Task: structure prediction
Amino acid sequence: MNNVNDVLNILIIDDEEGMCMGASRALSSTQVFIDDLNIIVGFSSRAVHSYSEYKTEIVNHKYDLILLDYKLPDGSGLDILQELNEQSKETLVIMMTAYATFETAVQATKLGAYDFLAKPFTPEELRNSVRKAATRFVLAKRAKSFEEEKRKIRFEFISVLSHELKSPINAIDGYLKLLHEGSITPDSENYQMAIERSLLRLEGMRKLIFDLLDMTRIESGQKTRKIEPINLIAIINLLIEQNTYEAKLNGITLNLVSPNELSMDGDQSELEIILNNLINNAIKYNRTNGTVDITVNDTPTQVEIQIKDSGIGLEPYEQDKLFKDFVRIKNTDTMNIQGSGLGLSTVKKIAALYEGTVSVTSQKGIGSTFCVTLKKYLNNTISPKIVT
Amino acid sequence: MAKILCIDDDRDVLETCKIILSTEKHNVTVAMNGNEGYAKAKSEIPDLILLDVMMDDNTEGFHTAYKLRKDPGLKFVPILMLTSVNQKLNMKCDPKKDGNFLPVDAFLEKPVEKIKLLKEVKRLLALKKDEINVDGN
Result:
């Protein structure tokens, strides 16, 4: 006998003691392998002999499967079936009867019986029926808990999102009220700050909405991916150019060490999202007059891009949670830096589309190095040549 | 004039509180997470602490409140909890109506309003040692 992953509780309801013992014995040595989940299920059974015993038994115990006799000394199995049906229990019922007529079968099925065994039956027939019921029960239970898990994740995401959207509204609301009631006057030093901060929070909110759309499109698979041969270095050069203005404001130098060109299969906008997030972060979280070193290593199957900054760096516990949705590291070093908390989680999700990874090594106060690996050719496509 | 420490991960909430509190000439220091806040509270021993609930994680403010109350040097510093989640979480925020469950002395709903904040600050600064909700029960 193998080790079981799950044990189902079976209640046998039959007034014939021999029947109960026989069924118990047959089930005690039965195991079911559930193919789809790769798990083995065993059984633990108990027997009761009448309707009233059943009523007492179910007060304190929960059963997954019931083997139910049609005729009980103080009632009918159909009554029990009816009750279970009304309570919409997940319990599956296998009816057993010696009075197997077509009508009883129809009646029992209507009341929700899962299967029907005509007495006398062999232990093998019993096992087969229980196997079928157990598989169905376990799969239904898994599907339900999977649904619940999905609902829970969705709820958590939405509640964090609503907090992230409410914060800028509260911030702007706060400044506007102070301006409105004259607590901040045009001649005070806070006047310009209040307006600039409000505009910045609006921009942050807009960025959050865009990032959110990017992420949703990637997650829902609705964004049409246009995979084509791409020169990765051309993309990096373009992004360096786009980020140069912001870098110069803080005297930050951007350096690139790479081959002259690097061909891979990819979707231009996805690769832009990955690289832009990382390059832009390296600038945002840098120090004045710092550097950003971008290094591209090419191998026959994959490309590795390293983006190293000389910025504020991360504590080890901060590194662990960095790639989750809505995570922003907040301290006095980062208080002036805008971000949605979705950039790196989106980078990670896109990298996964290229069977790749993203990781970080960092030292507080010294700087961080982000490393992305991407597979160059997916689905064994043959290396294409770049036409320039 | 009092020393007030504001702990919130939102820079603009801090700025707003600073502007409001400076109208009453209070001396304001700020911190952006629970650990930073606790360290500053230890070094400056403020007269009052304003504390946000949801910072790095959803309950960081609660944990910080417990930590402050366990510190002999800080346990009698009144805490005003700022929250934007009490409606969503159906939190019990009115010590008079709901009874205490957190070791804080008052709750204030965000966005922070000047009149309400100044009124609460004044009330809390006047609390005597034995009126501070040290245990939350």
